[in-house]
Specification:
It comes from Desulfacinum hydrothermale DSM 13146. InterPro entries: AAA+_ATPase, ABC_ATPase_HisP-typ, ABC_transporter-like_ATP-bd, ABC_transporter-like_CS, MetN_ABC_transporter-like, P-loop_NTPase. Belongs to the ABC transporter superfamily. It holds the Pfam family ABC_tran. 37% of the residues lie in helices and 25% in strands. With 255 residues, it is an alpha/beta fold. Strand 1 and strand 2 form a beta hairpin. Helix 3 packs across helix 4. The longest helix is centred in the C-terminal third of the chain and has 16 residues. The structure holds adenosine-5'-diphosphate and magnesium ion (MG). The site of adenosine-5'-diphosphate has 11 residues, from strand 2 and helix 1. The site of adenosine-5'-diphosphate (ADP) has 11 residues, from strand 2 and helix 1.
Length: 255
């Protein structure tokens, strides 16, 4: 992307995800301590921070892989409560890509991609396969459609996982350290697929320590520590002028 970080302003669009004073406990352990976050449509947020700071828990709360105990999460105008209908609606709009790709090993790439659309969305097989091939093309991997995940490299598997999410037509994509389990030479191909997605206007919340990605794609970078958002800024300011000591220490360790 040749767009410069300092000229990239937050899209002036509707709010896609709103998180208000979110708290979560694991038993006695207070893991999220009052998170506030508003993500506009087409906005791209990068979340970074030390291990154990609550990044995964936060994004897992957004599609209810974890339940929060206090505060509000609203996705595309739908509030995440115990209402099963709302949970289903939100899950149908939120795509998620994990560190470990979670593909079904006994299904081909194409079958991995068409499973959800056919069985959950009731899309006819032929149409589901056409859509799957379209997204496999997009992540430059259509020639692998009939292979099994175990026959692919980690980078290819992660691109399949991205394509699989896209087949469900998500309105927002969550990524939880999508490149951290990959060998260095495969990181770029996955980041490139994510950059293309960003260029097409996908709303994205990405937990990553790939600071080059953050600089070139994010509208805002959030730094979490101890279950709180300690600092939030444009990539330019975040990297050039970190304000908090904890942010400075973190950046000095990873850059
Ligand atoms: P991060 O993704 O920033 O590394 P996590 O959200 O995975 O952090 O974890 C935040 C804290 O919550 C860590 O101390 C972790 O050990 C704890 N934690 C995560 N999942 C659970 C769980 N299911 N039960 C109890 N503690 C958990
Ligand atoms: Mg994590």
């Amino acid at each position: 992307m040749n767009e410069k970080a300092e000229t990239r302003s937050r899209p002036d669009s509707e709010v896609m995800v709103e998180i208000v004073d979110l708290h979560k406990w694991f038993g006695e352990f207070h893991v999220l301590k009052g998170i506030n976050l508003k993500v506009h449509k087409q906005e791209r947020i990068v979340i970074c921070g030390p291990s154990g700071s609550g990044k995964s828990t936060l994004i897992r709360c957004i599609n209810r892989l974890e339940e929060h105990q206090k505060g509000r999460i609203v996705v595309d105008g739908i509030e995440l409560t115990n209402n099963v209908k709302n949970i289903e609606k939100i899950r149908s709009e939120v795509g998620m890509v994990f560190q470990h790709f979670n593909l079904f090993p006994h299904l081909t790439v194409l079958e991995n991609l068409t499973l959800g659309p056919i069985w959950v969305r009731k899309v006819p097989r032929k149409e589901a396969e056409e859509t799957a091939l379209y997204y496999l093309e997009k992540v430059h991997i259509a020639e692998q459609a009939h292979k099994y995940p175990g026959q692919l490299s980690g980078g290819q598997q992660q691109r399949v996982a991205i394509a699989r999410s896209l087949c469900m037509s998500p309105k927002v994509m969550l990524f939880d350290e999508p490149t951290s389990a990959l060998d260095p030479e495969m990181i770029k191909e996955v980041l490139d697929a994510m950059i293309e997605l960003a260029q097409e206007g996908m709303t994205m919340i990405v937990v990553t320590h790939e600071m080059g990605f953050a600089r070139s794609v994010a509208h805002r970078v959030l730094f979490m520590d101890g279950g709180q958002v300690v600092e939030e800024n444009t990539p330019e300011e975040f990297f050039n002028n970190p304000r908090h000591e904890r942010t400075k220490l973190f950046l000095s360790q990873i850059l």
